[in-house]
Amino acid sequence: MVAPAVQHWTVDEAGEGQRLDNYLLRHLKGVPKTMVYRVIRSGEVRVNKGRASADQRLAIGDDVRVPPVRVAARPVDQAPVVPARSFPVLYEDDWLMAIDKPAGVAVHGGSGVSSGVIEQLRQARPQARFLELVHRLDRETSGVLLIAKKRSALTHLQDQFRARGPHKTIGKTYGALVAGDWPERLKVIDVPLHKYLTAEGERRVRTAHADDPQAQRAITLVQVARRLPGFTLLDVTIKTGRTHQIRVHLSQAGHPIAGDDKYGDFALNRRLARGDGLPVRLDRMFLHARRLRFHHPHDGREITVEAPWPKECEDIAAVSAR
Questions:
Q1: Is 39 helix (H, G, I), strand (E, B) or coil?
Q2: Sheet with strand 203-207: strands edge to edge
Q3: Are 59 and 183 in a shared domain?
């Protein structure tokens, strides 16, 4: 084992603008995610000698104090090999790229996943000087994912994602297949969400009251796209980008996403995986980031990127159109 000791890290350009938790998870390889969040909550992690929260954004030159944490030493010959992998490119220029992320692939390593999209993409493009995730998609979700190729593009695009009100320029639309007959009148879900960790250290989200100090406002817009017996295909646009927002909002409305293994109808999911309930077998969550609209970080022009339906989702969407 590697002997633990207090560490002080100075944030450089690669860490500028990152959340504290993501910064630590990236640097503390081999430390369980639950431990990282535990030392943050306890106040043992300090930024410029002050207590810091998990979502605090870091700046160049910040001093991050990390308490002693025990990391299992891994023999060099047992170090995980990150595979080089390319993904379908939907848009690319000198500042950014948009790829079509498949379902079942994490966007980054961690929580028992040795590597994700960003690590595999870096391996596939060793000549690239800078590649960073602009935002996240759940592992089970497919569709449009933005990657910044310059630091300036990353900060500009992340500012767009964080903007609120009239300054909000990002538009994200998802396709979701939900159980049941979605009511036509239910077009806006404005229900706060509370993020927490289970006893096993897994991230979960639940709905909350507006006066809950730990809750964040979350707004989801829903439009019926097509109907088929027992299910409804929805176009879902999110006005806020909360963790698991769409999944929790649709589930709490009584219409969970087909194939959702965290907030869904588990008995229904088993039937769908066997090919019972839909004309096409479904063994994944039917949530697809179909469209992303943003302003280019270099010249400000509006760009809309669309990801085609994955084959398994396209087959179901085609059936529902009949």
A1: helix
A2: 203-207, 193-197, 215-216
A3: no
Closest CA to 57 of 32, 22, 31: 22
Structural domain of 305: 168-320
Name the DSSP class of 19: B
pLDDT digits (tens, 9 = 90+) for 202-236: 889 999 998 898 899 999 999 999 998 899 999 99
How far CA 188 is from CA of 4, 177, 184, 221, 318, in Å, comes to 50, 17, 11, 5, 26
Q: Which phi and psi (to 5°) does residue 72 adopt?
A: -70, 125
Burial of 1 (0-12, 13-18, 19+ CB in 10 A): exposed
Q: Which of 84, 89, 153 is nearest to 119 (CA)?
A: 84
β-bridge pairing 231-238 and 219-228: antiparallel
- Measured distance CA(130)–CA(122) in Å, rounded: 9
Length of the chain: 322
Interior CA angle at 53 toward 122 and 65, to 5°?
A: 75
Do 255 and 302 belong to one domain?
yes
Catalytically active residues, by annotation: 138
pTM of the model: 0.76
Which amino acid, 230?
G
- Specify the residue for token string 């590597």: 115
